[in-house]
Amino acid sequence: MQESRELWNNKIGFIMAAAGSAIGLGNIWRFPYMTGQNGGAAFVLTYVIFVVLIGFAAMLAELSLGRRTNKNALGAFTAVVPGTKWRYVGGLGIFTGIAILSFYSVIAGWTVGYMFKTIGGVFSHIPNAQYLADVFTGFSANPVSAILLHGLFIFLTVFVVMGGVSKGIERWSRILMPLLFAILLLLVIRALTLGAGVKEGLAFYLKPDFSQINAGTILMALGQALFSLSLGMGTMITYGSYISKSDNLVSSAASVAFFDTLIALMAGLAIFPALFANGLNPAGGAGLVFMVFPMIFEKIPGGMIFGAGFFILLSIAALTSTISLLEVPVSYLIDERKWSRKIAAIAAGVLAFILGIPSAISQGASDFFSNLPLIHISFLDFMNIAFGNYALTIGSFFIALFVGWKWGIKNAVKEVEDGNPVFGYRKMWSFTLRFLAPICILITMIYLAWTGNFF
Ligand code: TRP
């Protein structure tokens, strides 16, 4: 007899776990860095529009498919239509999970490293902005620490995932997110009171210059929305499969999307004023937040303690995200291939570790991986954009079509209405999944292919 599937302890447990998956480096590291590279406020606005218009609908689609089928990212498709070719969408998601995990844990490793640096007093006296750039470059170009910290992070992720769903994930997510929020609030307040440069920073971040928008930035904003909400690869299908039938999917999805976006917007509100106040370049790339946050902490009494606390909490926020990435291949291997949870977690973790090594040495340690032929970006940037943007966008495109047409919007609505009898958003949801989201994605993809500017 099949064992009954483990469920989240209750609705709050699920929201905390899903928010734990959504909130992570995507909000605090990736969002400011993408905003800085893609034109500031116009990008922010596009991102928020995508969260509301497409992200929320896509999240509801994944959750309802997961809860209906009680299956993993691939099994959910075949549970609806046995043997269907749509399972390749699930397959893409499973691989994308490992690919994102591979570079994500490199950045998470940097976060751990920065916690030690902060405790060690590296940032207690900052002579100038160049100093921070030098610290970052020196640190990220060191292959030994980069690979070791990446390995450490994968190890922690595997360790938690081996422990199973509700006990492992929920316990972590519950207590620590509010603390992270509090420190972030402190950072925002300090950054806004830095004086010179704050105005320019706010203008860059909040006053849209629409000439900055093109197919590339639109797709980056969509990719960022999906990445930040953990969509497009079956994380929310997998997490949805652990939700009880009596929970309200609509309000759960809405709270997750709301808090996730709030945290990202706050991170930007701390970063950009501080960045301009110190004359740094907003398009500084993957190291951006590692150069800016220490600067703000230095200007806060007891900043070393807040700084170390911040990097610890950010590492934990990253961990609740990496476990949701690893859980996708793991639950596939358990359900469909009958592997034990332990072996599945270890095997997928080892794969992500190996795949992450080129990313770990792509910030100066290896010339080849730091500047790939043809596209002239680092391997880490390549993985971030290829999987963090395009694979998720393609995944969401097919998930929307699958739920909207193949599984059928009627069935999907029925699933949502379990636990939420008054589903006022029904018509709009149906329209978004069947038409709006797929058409938007298709048009920007075609336009981008036309201009040929993929990276
Ligand atoms: N959303 C997480 C973040 O913002 C990262 C993440 C976890 C993710 N699971 C995902 C991204 C699934 C895409 C898909 O840090």
The CATH class name reads Mainly Alpha
The total count of strands amounts to 0
Order of secondary-structure elements: HHHHHHHHHHHHHHHHHH
Question: Which structural class do the helices and strands define?
Answer: mainly alpha
Q: How can the largest sheet be summarized?
A: none
Total of domains: 1
Ligand types: tryptophan
Query: Compute the gyration radius: what is it?
Result: 21 Å
CATH architecture: Orthogonal Bundle
> DSSP helix count?
18
Features of the shown structure:
binds tryptophan, Hydantoin permease, 455 residues, mainly alpha, 76% helix, globular
Summarize the structure.
The protein is 76% helix and 0% strand.
Layout of secondary structure:
Blueprint: H1 11-22, H2 25-37, H3 41-69, H4 75-80, H5 87-119, H6 129-140, H7 143-162, H8 165-192, H9 198-206, H10 215-228, H11 235-240, H12 249-277, H13 288-298, H14 303-337, H15 341-360, H16 367-370, H17 379-417, H18 426-451
Helix pairs in contact: 1-8, 1-12, 1-14, 2-10, 2-12, 3-9, 3-10, 3-12, 3-17, 3-18, 5-7, 5-14, 5-15, 5-17, 6-13, 7-14, 7-15, 8-12, 8-14, 9-12, 10-17, 10-18, 12-13, 13-14, 14-15, 17-18
Bound molecules: tryptophan.
Tryptophan is lined by residues 21-22, 24-27, 100, 227-228, 230, 232-233, 235, 321, 324-325, 392.
Molecular structure report:
The protein is an all-alpha fold. It has one domain: Hydantoin permease, CATH 1.10.4160. The chain is built from 18 helices and no strands. It has helices spanning 11-22, 25-37, 41-69, 75-80, 87-119, 129-140, 143-162, 165-192, 198-206, 215-228, 235-240, 249-277, 288-298, 303-337, 341-360, 367-370, 379-417, 426-451. The protein is globular, with a radius of gyration of 21 Å. The mean pLDDT is 93. The structure holds tryptophan. Tryptophan is lined by residues 21-22, 24-27, 100, 227-228, 230, 232-233, 235, 321, 324-325, 392.
